[in-house]
Amino acid sequence: MNLDYPYRFDARGATAEADEEAYLRGLIEQVLFTAPGERLMRPEFGSGIQQLLFAPNSPEVAATAQFLVQGALQQWLGDLIALQSVQVETADSTLRVTIAYAVRRTGQVQTATFERAGAAP
């Protein structure tokens, strides 16, 4: 069973389920935007890019974010996805992360983009 993210109940009052594509996207989002130390039973879980969202946007911040994203996704989801590329862009006050990956079970290639606003320039 693949739980939907964010957690919710379906029309029957049961835990909502997601198809594999939505499930993996939810897992990626959780890794990206969970700060290490945020989860009590898994204090090392997360990528740490959340702390970069309020730094002034720059190529250095984007490169650091790309490094953090690649490492975290390989560590936490490496058994489910094979990363093909990670692209991090900064524009105005937004950090945009685009991830291309292959689903290990099927070999199907997916691309997902995630955005978070940071500090104003």
TrEMBL record:
Residues 21-107 form the IraD/Gp25-like domain. InterPro entries: IraD/Gp25-like. Pfam families: GPW_gp25. This is Phage baseplate assembly protein W. It comes from Thioflavicoccus mobilis 8321.
